[in-house]
Design brief:
With about 170 residues, the protein is mostly helical. It contains eight helices and three strands. A three-stranded mixed sheet has the order 1-3-2, covered by helices on one side.
Amino acid sequence: MFLKVAKKSQIEEKHKLLAKIRVHLRNDDMAKNLTKEYGIKGWIFDAVPLDFKDIKVTAKTVNGTIFLNPKINKMPFNIVMRYVIHEFVHVLQHITEEKDGEVEDDKKQEYLDREDEVEAFQHQIKYDAKYRGKDAAEEYTDELLEYHKIPREEKKERKKELMEKVK
């Protein structure tokens, strides 16, 4: 009986978080502006598939479906949404560019050299600055560049590019 209750609780928590994400996306000015930028109507907020999946990264979009690592449940909501905004940009890219998110040519490029990734990170960092402040967004950007082993001589220019949308 205890196992059933624990499982029910996990499922309920998962769905509550997914519902909260969807409501936040639908009401967030930045997400609304992204849909306008891509020429996609508001139906996308109800239609975009969101689910949890055991993946190596925090979040990933494949064929317009956003997958979140279950570990994201332990993160503050504004951090969760920072990742969701990044993936939401990919959903919009997949729809408008008719890409499936698994194009081999993209995989041959370094991650932060890909235009689709740079654009998604720019919006992610803009979102982070909006909800956690510019200093936190800068710190996150520095950590991102360090994580992706960007050479020291390239960091300043890369940071400027990634933070381009932050006011």
